[in-house]
Amino acid sequence: MDTTSLLAARFGAEAAPDAADAALPEGLARLLDRRVSRRYRDQDVPEALLALVLAAAQSAPSKSDLQQYSVVVLRERAPIARIAGWIGTMDWIATAPVLLIWCGDMRRGQRLCARHAMEHANNNLDTFLNTAADCALAMGHAIAAAETLGLGTCPISYVRNHVEKIAPLLALPKGVYPLAGLTLGWPDGRRPTAMRLPPGVVVHRERYDDAAMEEAVAAYDRRRAAREPIAPGSVKNRDIYPARADIGWSENLARQLSVPERYGFAAWLRTRGFGLA
Amino acid sequence: MDTTSLLAARFGAEAAPDAADAALPEGLARLLDRRVSRRYRDQDVPEALLALVLAAAQSAPSKSDLQQYSVVVLRERAPIARIAGWIGTMDWIATAPVLLIWCGDMRRGQRLCARHAMEHANNNLDTFLNTAADCALAMGHAIAAAETLGLGTCPISYVRNHVEKIAPLLALPKGVYPLAGLTLGWPDGRRPTAMRLPPGVVVHRERYDDAAMEEAVAAYDRRRAAREPIAPGSVKNRDIYPARADIGWSENLARQLSVPERYGFAAWLRTRGFGLA
């Protein structure tokens, strides 16, 4: 794998950033070549490999070294099948040998404050954000580590659609919430590389400037459609808006974001002890 | 570098998880060996390498493929020096050739909804969390990519202590907020590996269970103190609580979390158009 081909796969040849076609460190090639895995072979993930994936997760940076996250490892079939059933539309979840539930965790800090006879005075939105960032960084490093081992993953934010059932299933106490699930297993085939927005849309120089965004996204819509049109089953909210062929990435985004999703999440968090002011 | 030494550096030999001492993929060794870099050589980061780091960031997973984040690249000395000056306690920021400001971005989705004549109906806490997770995943992949290239990074959540100045400096529009800064440069020396909580504290099996947490953290406090005691300058809130020698990790955490930090962040976000209900 050379740099030029990896970047062309990620952005399309005409939108790929200019980077020397030099030999890549293997680890960087793996990052650039990351794919989601939604089909798994019927083969276990040994504990030693899982331990390495989780150790890589714990090697991620953490805000002020506070490590405000936890992860629940599910290997038993029954709870994985229940979660898959609640979600209903992601049949690969139940076939994954491991399902990791990544959780923001304010509770540990609260307990440690109490242990040192000090008041926890940071039950606020900033701490909530810190727990989310710590948790996402750890999950991201787990994903990257899995890729280096030939394992495949798929993040599942839809666990948040069922927090009121998943939290008791996993005995999550107050102060702990699921950010995302992550299926882990041996990939059965590889998906094409997910094509990303052109760097000029996401990366700003010195100042935020999105004056050219709409035009760049229109070109991105066309590039994606040319490579892999959105499958009929992936068109969002077909029960609300008429289904149509040739829905592009940005129109599908609008179809998704125009319908409120998980609008009760903040209310649920408050029942779990989170102050979000 | 072998697995056993890397895990012993990360967790301490007596707390390291059990993983076969097999040859590691180079990319995984890099992840397990990640260190923060707070001193940089006076040497530029070529654009091609920066492009690769940012391409790796864009290769991270993104919730529903929505890519709800942006990054502002700072190379000019003046804005970097201003941000370093505002923060005041992190002198390495001004010496870094590149400062990346990672931003959650709800605005792009709002504009694209408008472009498709649809209402954006997800200005809520769940979307805020999605932007944070997308952003942290991208930053995490940038950090991992930098490590493979021999570059060093340091995440700076303290940019959030100065949002009211940093947002206009970078022309951040409504719907965009800084999650963290990230210094990027060629490391001048390497710090020791940051020792992490024992896996049993962070990783739960089938159900969340922190019954043994306090005891495990006490042992962690001792292991950290034995390897690298907290420097007097790193003891938190010395202007509020008496300074003392032999403050352990968990007591320092309590000293930090017992004083409200960035408690105005939610109010600021609301002035920038975020609905957090």
Q: What distinguishing features does this structure have?
A:
homodimer; 277 residues; alpha+beta; 4-stranded antiparallel beta sheet; 11 helices; 5 strands; 12% strand
Give me the strand/helix succession of chain A: HHHEHEHHEHEHEHHH
> Of all protein chain pairs, which has the greatest interface, and how many residues does each chain bring to it?
A-B, 127 and 127 residues
What structural category arises from helix and sheet content of chain A? alpha+beta
- Name the strands of the widest sheet of chain A in spatial order: 1-2-4-3
**Through-space gap between termini of chain A:** 48 Å
Helix content of chain A: 40-55%
The number of helical segments of chain A is 11
- Mean pLDDT of chain A, to the nearest integer, reads 96
Low-confidence stretches of chain A: none
Assembly type: homodimer
- Using the alpha-carbon principal axes, give the shape of chain A: globular
**Main pleated-sheet profile of chain A:** 4 strands, antiparallel
Radius of gyration of chain A: 20 Å
- The total beta strand count of chain A reads 5
Strand content of chain A: 5-15%
Give a description of the structure.
The structure is a homodimer of 277-residue chains. With 277 residues, chain A is an alpha+beta fold. The first copy, chain A, has 11 helices and 5 strands, in the order H-H-H-E-H-E-H-H-E-H-E-H-E-H-H-H. The first copy, chain A, has helices at 3-11, 26-32, 47-58, 77-87, 107-115, 125-148, 163-169, 199-202, 213-227, 249-257, 265-271; strands at residues 69-74, 98-105, 152-156, 176-185, 203-205. In chain A, strands 1-2-4-3 form a 4-stranded antiparallel β-sheet, with helices on both faces. In chain A, helix 3 crosses helix 6 (125-148). The first copy, chain A, is globular. Chains A and B meet through helix 1, helix 2, helix 3, strand 1 and helix 5 of A and helix 1, helix 2, helix 3, strand 1 and helix 5 of B. Strand 5 of chain A pairs parallel with strand 1 (69-74) of chain B.
